[in-house]
Amino acid sequence: MEGSLDIVLQLVLNGLAVGCIYGLVALGFVLIYKATELVNFAQGDLMMLGAFTCYMFVVWYGIGYWVAFAAAVAVVGLFGALLDATVLRRVLGQPQFAVVMLTIGLGAMFRSFASIVWGTEIYTLPTPFSAHTSRIGGVSVSHEYVSIIVGTVVLCAVLYAFFTYTRVGVAMQAVSQNQLAAYYMGIPVKLMCSLIWAISAGVAAIAGVLLAPVSLVDINLGFIGLKAFAAAVLGGFGSIPGALVGGITIGLIELFSGTYLPAGFKDVAAYLVLLIVLAVRPQGIFGAVGRKKV
Amino acid sequence: MRFVFRTSYAQDLTLFTDTVQRNWYIALLLALVALPKLAPAYLVDISLVLIYGLCGLSLMALAGYTGLVSLGHAAFLGIGAYAHVYFTQDLGLPWIASVALATALTAATGVLVGLPALRMTGVYLTIATLAFALIIQEVFARWDRVTHGLKGRPVDKPVIFGISFANDVAFYFLCLAFLIGGLWLTRNLLRSPTGRAWVAIRDSEIAAQSMGVNLAAYKTMAFSYSAALMGLAGALFAHKIGFLAPDIFSVLLSIQFLLMVVVGGLGSLHGALFGAVFVALLPVMISQARDSVPAWVGAIVSILGKGASDAAFGATDRFVKQPGLEPGIFGLILVLFILFEPLGIYGRWVKLRVYFSTFPLYKASTFKRQRAYMRSERLR
Amino acid sequence: MTFFKAEGLGVNFGGVRALDGVSFEVEPGQVFTIIGPNGAGKTTIFNLISRIYDPSQGRLVWNDEDITRVPAHEIAARGIARTFQNIELFEHATVLDNLLLGRHAHKRSRFFGELLFLPRVRVRELEHREAAEQIIDFLDLHAYRDRLIANLPYGVRKVVELARALCTRPKLLLLDEPSSGLSVEETEDMAFWIQDIRNLLHITVLMVEHDMSLVSAVSDRVLALNYGRAIAEGSAREVQEHPEVVKAYLGG
User: Fold this and answer.
1) How confident is the model at residue B380 (pLDDT cuts 50, 70, 90)?
2) Cross-strand pairs, C176
3) C47 CB near a chain A CB, below 8 Å?
4) pLDDT digits (tens, 9 = 90+) for C85-114
5) What pLDDT digit, counting tens, does each position of B200-248 carry?
């Protein structure tokens, strides 16, 4: 009895950690969606770029972990803003599907870029938490997992406060609902969009760096983005706390189904949840349903 | 400048607008029929183009005309392929019956996907199809009895009514016949009430409902028809590649199909075919460029002397031989098309044609669209 | 036989009571107009009849049939057509395609017949085209037949919207603010067309309108709404002079 409780607790911890990563990537999706109503299919690849950049700073240039972390986030955030200013601004007003294809194309380009610059092998990122574990009761608590959970919670709190209580955050919501009206209201729409992309790219970079010690750094890191979709949809695509809740739920479902369900379910658990949510309650847990007024 | 005189309503219903256009298409058909004699080296590649053409038609009907964008169509291709191989090789059914059954089965799966899709709009639908495709890929990997799982299974050459179509030329004509058939069927649908209903669903669901269009029925029909075409293409695809494995029918293949539709030009059948030519031949062009581009660069730089030329050759050679380059090139082309030519290859073709037919009176602003501002699609 | 009747319609949107106990009856061959300040609930009534919304209370009777819960896509087949306040045309299709879509309710062909484009499908297509051309004649849309909607000016789009609704061969036509955005000449044309629709095509018209001159010119009966409630009903003149209506529009 004691043993199975330990197993459950272990699964909960691991699920929380994995779920936080999904939640962070989902958060990136949700941020961009709230501001520009685009779904950024390259979010996972931005995460991959963040992980590689931090790796490069730490291993190639010998910079300390925390400084490299901050630098990687800044670099990728700036890249995201530049991406918006140069590429995405031109496609505003085109049907959503065209922009989705654009982000898919960009994602492929990022992967190619990464394989050219950093090669196709798998790398390890040395961190202050690597290979440290504590034991609490019968559960082994990996410090890497704890860093993921703590980092995610802190980041989500900061972002939630930003969007709810600051003018900039409210302005971003206006931009997402009717851009032309936002222009008329004097909101610097283009700047808002670039800022949102910078924040979202930064969040992706943070997710990438936090995940790197656990899943290693290679160009296919971005495919986690697909599972993060499930998290974003489950939480409700326009909701920041929803992204985190959705991510954690998916993480827990995945780990528990890996242990208690037949083989193969672990890989598709996230997608099954996604389909069920979309079929039954498309607005997710926290989302709201809108209807066009004719 | 050619002017088409319309004298009856029936004229607007014909497949070709006038005899001149019909003659052009007949010439094209003759060129395609003569292709085995004219360019036998390209026969295998062109067969793939024809199969991809069917795939492009399928996705164009769903995404281009009905506005339901699917990122999971490779799954339907796989279902058609595996089903056909199972029916012919494991159950021993005759070829035509097997293809028909595989097509019907894929159409039924299309209905299954379409039903929950009725409740989803826009990008949610796209994500749902993506999830569906990933689940189906897992099913392919796990269902050993039918698909032989990750081991993969080899595919025999087609034998129809006892005649073997193993020959490249025979297979080419088989694909050509199926593509022409698919084109005819799709064109028929698009010029009848069903096609108009699909376009209505894309542009304004509420107005479509008010005009009597049953959204659920037509969306399901669109999914089902699109899946059926994919299933048909899947059967041919299986014979073409000769060996089925689950990782062939991946998200990347679905993305390539969407690329076909976007690059070709949304909303026209020509676009689907242009896109198919593009997507099927691009890897061929890339691998040929890989061999020749370093030599060109070396030749150009040789002005600066042999040493510089060798260095340039070496650097370019290392760069283009990188394995990860191909998806990057696909991505770059996709991005460039969306940024600079949203109407796709067909759009550019139409602009060129208008330029030559109205020369020297052509105005670039003929095709310019008014500046658009983003409006929320959540409240459609 | 009841031609068209609305009984005690009530709609709640969250906490907002958009309609409260609205009842009225439309006689065949009438032009019945609903007026009222913005937000009074006029378009909401149309959305209930088109079955885009469900009413919280009340019922709708058409041709002695209760249509309160009928699915939206079955309304056109029953002979009710509507235009939309913010034009809901199919932007990337031609005018002719839009009108042919209006004929959808009279479609007789099945999917497999259309797939093979059987001769009877061809015959039906030509019939649909005939019918659409009659409407083009009626509304003088010859010059715009093959133009994409996206290239047309606003006034023409409004006419195409009307044409599309007429193509469904309705017995009851719902016009949502037919003159909004139109110039004086275009509004006069619209007035003549509405009268022709009533007199020549024998279609009953239920209209939402703001332009009082148009209302006075064509209406047989007027209903005034304010804050979701009916405040006056009668001839155009009676309603316009009604003190409640004056108060609703001018305040006080």
Assistant:
1) very low
2) C208
3) yes
4) 888 898 888 999 999 999 998 888 888 888
5) 998 888 899 999 999 999 999 999 999 999 999 999 999 999 899 998 9
Take residue B43 and report the two structure tokens written for it. Answer: 């026969």
Domain encompassing residue A231: 2-280
Which residue type, as a one-letter code, is found at position A21?
Answer: I
Which residues of chain C lie closer than 8 angstroms to A290, CB-CB?
A: none
C141 with C160: CB under 8 angstroms?
yes
Alpha helices for chain C (secondary structure H): 42-49, 95-102, 111-116, 119-139, 154-167, 184-199, 212-218, 236-241, 243-250
Mind listing the pLDDT tens digit for each residue in B190-207? Answer: 988 999 999 999 888 889
Tokens of A149: 């959970």
Residues of B with CB under 8 A from a CB of C: 9-10, 12-13, 185, 188-189, 191-194, 196-197, 199-200, 202-204, 206-215, 221, 267, 369
Domain residue spans of chain C? 1-79+170-252, 90-167
Structure ipTM: 0.90
Contact C103, B197 (CB under 8 A): no
Residue B374 has pLDDT above 50, yes or no: no
The tally of domains found in chain A comes to 1
Peptide bond into B360 cis (omega under 30): yes
| Long-range CB pairs of A136-140, under 8 A, 24+ apart, other chains included | A137/A6, A137/A9, A138/A2, A138/A3, A138/A5, A138/A6, A138/A9, A139/A6, A139/A9, A139/A10, A139/A13, A140/A10
Which of B283, B278, B310, B279 shows the shortest CA–CA distance to B297?
B310
Percent of the residues in chain A that have a pLDDT greater than 70, as a whole number: 94
Determine whether the interchain pair B196/C93 forms a contact, defined as Cβ–Cβ distance below 8 Å. yes
Evaluate whether residue A294 is within a structural domain.
no
Model confidence at B361, pLDDT cuts 50, 70, 90, reads confident
The CA angle A271-A277-A280, to the nearest 5 degrees, is 140
CATH of the domain at A248: 1.10.3470
Question: Which residue ranges of chain C lie beneath pLDDT 70?
Answer: 251-252
H/E segment holding residue B78: helix B73-85
Q: How far apart are CA B291 and CA A253, in angstroms?
A: 49
All structural domains of chain B with their residue ranges: 20-283, 289-367
Tell me which residue of C83, C131, C82, C138 sits closest to C106, measured CA to CA.
Answer: C131
A256 belongs to a structural domain? yes
Contact check, Cβ <8 Å, B334/A291: no
- Which residue carries 């309603």 as its tokens? C239
B120, B328, B338 ranked by CB distance to A112: nearest: B328
pLDDT above 90 (res B60): yes
Percentage of chain B beyond pLDDT 70 is 96
Helix axes C154-167, C95-102, angle to 10 degrees: 30
Nearest Cα neighbor of C32 from C206, C214, C249 is C206
Q: Where are the beta strands (DSSP E) in B161-274?
A: 163-164, 243-244
Q: Is residue A73 part of a domain?
A: yes
- Inside any domain, residue A117: yes
Q: Does B120 touch chain A (CB under 8 A)?
A: yes
Neighbours of chain C (3+ CB pairs under 8 A): A, B
Q: Which fold has domain C1-79+170-252?
A: Rossmann fold (3.40.50)
B196–C104: do the CB atoms touch at under 8 Å? yes
Q: Do C88 and B204 touch (CB under 8 A)?
A: yes
Interchain proximity A101–B262, CB inside 8 Å? yes
Architecture in CATH for domain B20-283: Orthogonal Bundle (1.10)
d(CA C235, CA C53): 29
The pLDDT of residue A293 is 55
- The span from the CA of A274 to the CA of C95, in Å, is 40
Which residue type sits at A145? Y
Whether pTM exceeds 0.90: no
Quickly state the pLDDT bin for A290 (edges 50, 70, 90). low
